[in-house]
Fold this protein.
Amino acid sequence: MPANLRFSVALHILTLLAANGTGLLTSEEIASSVDTNPVVIRRVMASLRESGLVESRPGVNGGWRLKKTPASITLCKVFETVREDDLLAMHAHPNPDCPIGGHIRDSLHKVFADAEKALHGSLSNQTVADVLEDVRARA
């Protein structure tokens, strides 16, 4: 699953858990809201659990819940948790003998770094609580 999809699924999950308060939701219940397979949910949840954002209780009455308050979970933390690769990828083999190809990678590294810094800044100023508030306002 591409990083941007993992991010949106993770935000959906965390917002759903935030709306549920301290109660537990099963992977099946979460999958129903996301409209995907519970296996997909469990994969994303594993990353969220490793980063300390959610916790689970096994068994018949088990499920998932937030481990932190929604207001303390920045979107940047979620993005970094589910991200597996570079946000913006460089093409592999530009022609080093070309006046552009020989230097494009160095130029694009700065462009990409600036873009990523801007994204992180924006995501750091928003929380799961903000997303939940917006969702509720639209409902």
